[in-house]
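hey
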């Protein structure tokens, strides 16, 4: 079980880092719109670099994991730069495909049309990257029978609706909770809470991990789009 004092300390460190970065950008006199985007991206990069170093066993592992995480951010950043937001389905399918996990073969992806604002897209892309890369390196996706189902729904709630997203792995064997808390777990349990007010639940089932995320669908995080208006923002589906 996660130590509440440890989590509180980590969240306080993240807030302190972001406060220092905000002061630097304010002193530079950068325009508000550009300053906001740069602050979000730079704060995310600082956190990734620091947390990757803390959880790496050696220099080679650190370099490999950091490279993968930065590539995931670069891919989604290109989408949000072009469209101003990202399609949730495309975000997930692109990350899986980057790891050679194809929708319709070893992956099932299902949910309504949801578009994410840049900050939420960045952190969720990183979360999907961690789940996928961990599955490839250590878990179910290293096995020929391994599959993953990613589904989501939007539930009405107050003061804003809630995006309920579930990542469910199948085909693994002897899955147990890791002895040490690594970058991926810290991201899912701490960074998502700090960055987008998400709540997470990780369940280590015998054949794979189940991860459930509850994300408030506030306007600064994303929006549900009616099917007739769901084209664009990286959405190339019919």
């Amino acid at each position: 079980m996660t130590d509440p004092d440890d989590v509180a300390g980590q969240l306080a460190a993240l807030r302190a880092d972001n406060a220092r970065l905000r002061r630097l950008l304010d002193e530079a006199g950068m325009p508000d719109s550009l300053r906001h985007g740069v602050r979000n991206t730079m704060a995310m990069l600082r956190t990734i670099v620091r947390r990757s170093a803390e959880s790496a066993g050696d220099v080679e592992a650190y370099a490999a994991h950091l490279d993968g995480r930065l590539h995931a951010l670069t891919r989604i950043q290109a989408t949000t730069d072009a469209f101003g937001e990202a399609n949730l389905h495309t975000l997930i399918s692109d990350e899986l495909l980057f790891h050679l996990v194809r929708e319709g073969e070893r992956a099932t992806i299902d949910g309504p049309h949801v578009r994410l604002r840049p900050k939420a897209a960045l952190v969720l892309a990183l979360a999907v990257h961690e789940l996928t890369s961990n599955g490839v390196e250590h878990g179910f996706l290293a096995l020929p029978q391994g599959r993953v189902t990613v589904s989501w729904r939007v539930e009405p709630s107050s003061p804003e609706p809630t995006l309920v997203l579930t990542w469910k792995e199948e085909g693994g064997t002897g899955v147990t909770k890791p002895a040490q808390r690594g970058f991926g777990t810290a991201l899912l349990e701490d960074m998502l809470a700090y960055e987008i007010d998400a709540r997470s639940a990780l369940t280590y089932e015998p054949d794979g991990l189940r991860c459930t995320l509850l994300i408030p669908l506030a306007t600064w995080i994303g929006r549900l789009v009616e099917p007739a208006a769901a084209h664009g923002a990286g959405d190339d589906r019919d």
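The chain has a mean pLDDT of 79. The chain has one domain: 31-224.
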